[in-house]
Specification:
- With 343 residues, the chain is α/β, with parallel strands linked by helices.
- Helices cover 41% and strands 18% of the residues.
- It contains 14 helices and 10 strands.
- It has a 10-stranded mixed β-sheet, sandwiched between helices.
Length: 343
Amino acid sequence: MKNRFSFVALGQGGGNIGYLLEKRGYPVLYINTSQEDLDTLENAKFKYHIPEGEGCHKNRHKAKQLIMDDFDNIASEIEAKVKAELTFVIFASAGGSGSGGGPMLVDLLIDEGKDIGSITIMPAPDESVKAHINSYECFSELTEIAGTSACFIIDNQKGDKFELNEAFVDAFTAFLEIPQKHKSIKGNIDQAEIMETLKAHGMAMAVSSPARESADVIREIQTGVSAPLESDRAVKYIAASLAGNVQMSDLETAVGTPIDNFQTFNDNGTICCLSGLTYPQTRLDMIYNKVSDNKELIKKNLAAARESGLKKGVNFLEEMDPPRKKPEGKKPQSKRDIMSKYL
């Protein structure tokens, strides 16, 4: 399975997760506007510094422009170094390089005919107002992209970010390894079913737990590293290697009835992935409220904030810097058209 997946880690937050994946044997390309950030990734195999980049210090617009100007080289690096059947772009939603460039890079790579998923990070509640603005705007762009594969969302309100990264990578890689490591006379999950699960559009979450009772696994799903499930959620696939008394029917009762489920069995613990989930609007509303509650501070300290594509905007300075209108008409037909959506 390792040859069927690759990862493009954008920015420092993406690099931290990519580094953990590379240690587990997966191909990772690290892209950053900051050479200093890249230098912290000792022994990383593939690193690419965007020319003229000196870091973006939470400036999404700056990151977008740098990636636009260098996209042909970036695409060539991806093709040469980490070409795979399914590629995940990893980025933090609250920073600069990853937040600004992540959604656009996903969009551009999909336009080239590639299957592209994403792994992104939501900010902790005690992070800055600017971080929350960036995160909300990042998700407003990401959730509008048609044709994306699974989007895994690590929620930093759940605890220490480095521990959350480790837990996510443990669960994600355990899921990818199910066809190789989990065999049962009662049924198996093959590689095609793993791919089907991970190519589903919408939010996804992976859980790996020693739990042997359904209630304990459901608790892990509800309280684990991922952004929380919506109360009116939809789910497309549930794929799981079940242990002990854990039942697929119990998982479906708790999270919703999927279009299909894939299951196998083992003696050590339960590993599952939910995909095609509703994006976490309630959690995004919390991020919006953090911004809204600091409206006057934003007006005072920020020159502008980009226009949001979600239902509610976070740009309280429109009277100072009116947002650029989004292009109207047909679906974008060129790279330049796609890029224009992000400025």
